[in-house]
């Protein structure tokens, strides 16, 4: 019995020390990890709104009605509003897809960039390629964005990822949520 008690005490001490070290490591790395995430998102905003010199976060009207919209930033150059960037998160096939889109004041998409995902490698993960993402640039947002599985996409369509329709559908749904928000709350505002 004494032997079991000694083993339990040793194990408890080891677990306590390990927990303290893990908490210490988390406290040290939390700030730099968050700073890197913020910097990566700023770089992505700059990538999809190249002419912008500043991004100002704006409040989301009725966030409960817009759950896929995580953040909206007004993109400006001097005193001129160029458009808005939307950080979106929506459920795809393998989990949540977090991505960024831009809509300019001429009601056109300026680009799309996936920030994080857990989609299937070789299928839904194709959403991170330049080939897939570049097809969103300059698309009209007047009537939303649709996808086609074959053929040449029109001005308001993109080509779906072959074998990953759920991923494509999720991404276009999030974009359409942002487009609806833009049309109802931001279009013509500045």
Write the layout of secondary structure elements.
Elements: H1 2-48, E1 54-58, E2 69-77, E3 80-91, E4 96-104, E5 109-116, H2 130-134, E6 146-148, E7 157-159, H3 165-186
Parallel strand pairs: 6-7
Antiparallel strand pairs: 1-2, 2-3, 3-4, 4-5
Give your account of this protein's structure.
This protein has 190 residues and is α+β, with helices and mostly antiparallel strands. It has one domain. Helix content is 39%, strand content 26%. It contains three helices and seven strands, in the order αβββββαββα. A five-stranded antiparallel sheet has the order 1-2-3-4-5, sandwiched between helices. Strands 6-7 form a two-stranded parallel ribbon. A hairpin with a 2-residue loop joins β2 (69-77) and β3 (80-91). The longest helix has 47 residues, at 2-48. The radius of gyration is 22 Å and the shape is elongated. The protein starts with a helix and ends with a helix. The mean pLDDT is 88.
Low-confidence stretches: none
- Can you give the helix content as a percent range? 25-40%
Percent strand: 25-35%
Number of strands: 7
How would a crystallographer describe the biggest sheet? 5 strands, antiparallel
Q: Order of strands across the biggest sheet?
A: 1-2-3-4-5
Shape: elongated
Order of helices and strands: HEEEEEHEEH
